[in-house]
Design goal:
With 259 residues, the chain is of the alpha+beta class. The protein has a domain of 119 residues. The chain is 51% helix and 14% strand. A 3-stranded antiparallel beta sheet has the order 1-2-3, with no helix packed on it. The chain has a 3-stranded mixed beta sheet with strand order 8-9-10. The two termini are 48 Å apart.
Length: 259
């Protein structure tokens, strides 16, 4: 494995949570402390999950075998046939249109009854997202230390990559894949590590990070201009997507564009 060695040929160790772990060098040159015990535990867990998935698949195939053996290849047609049989009354077909009308009215009554509950649940979900995701951007040390644009503009560009799943913050890359941690193989990346990964993949990252994309006095977009207003260079503004551009020029946190 590509571990990092010192001048004496010994593996370099890094202390993490009271443990001294060997430093692992990834293909892109980034270094992370490698927790072997955690990795082995994760591999064991994933193997168990794979076995469980395989057993469920085999059980599903077994349950479907009688239908395949009976020649039932069109589940939609089979379901329609069963529905027709259920509408038989004294060997006469009940008006299928009336049956569907009654069903539709019953469904609408239930939907109307629980619409306020659904609305409230949606509002609570949006509030949770705003607190966990919006708060994470606002409190981010990575944004404070490395970004040349305010946290709200960073959220406008990368916020859609983060979701709340089972109460946890989960990040997805541009291909729709979950972002996993480099430091904890097999585990999901936390907010800060996921944000750094997203920025590494962003083609215009040099325009939004401190001291990389711009030159002169505007190199640190987000500096205070006249009257205390935040500023960013034209190059940094042009690198933003439409949503981030709109956020940059409107609202109380609007920035001043400098050429």
């Amino acid at each position: 494995m590509p571990f990092k060695f010192d001048a004496n040929g010994a593996i370099v160790l890094q202390e993490v949570n009271g443990q001294k772990l060997p430093v692992f060098v990834h293909a892109d040159g980034k270094e992370t402390a490698f927790d072997g015990d955690s990795t082995i535990a994760t591999i064991s867990r994933l193997n168990g999950e794979a076995k469980s998935h395989r057993e469920r698949a085999e059980a599903a195939e077994g349950a479907l075998k009688p239908f395949k053996d009976a020649g039932i290849e069109d589940p939609v047609a089979a379901a329609k046939a069963l529905s027709t049989i259920k509408n038989l009354d004294d060997k006469r077909l009940v008006d299928a249109g009336e049956v569907e009308k009654v069903k539709a009215e019953a469904i609408k009554a239930v939907e109307d009854k629980y619409a306020p509950v659904v609305k409230k649940a949606t509002e609570l979900e949006q509030a949770l997202y705003g607190e966990k995701i919006g708060g994470a951007f606002a409190r981010s040390k990575v944004i404070a230390d490395k970004f040349a644009i305010p946290a709200d503009l960073v959220q406008a560009r990368f916020g859609n990559a983060f979701k709340i799943e089972e109460g946890k913050t989960v990040a997805y890359d541009a291909q729709g894949n979950k972002i996993f941690s480099r430091a904890r193989p097999g585990e999901l990346a936390d907010f800060e590590e996921a944000l750094e990964t997203l920025v590494d993949q962003y083609p215009y990252k040099d325009q939004i990070l401190k001291g990389t994309g711009a030159s002169g006095g505007g190199a640190h977009g987000g500096n205070q201009g006249a009257g205390g207003k935040k500023t960013m260079t034209r190059a940094q503004f042009d690198a933003l997507d439409p949503t981030a551009k709109a956020a940059a020029v409107t609202g109380k946190d609007a920035v001043q564009i400098t050429d």
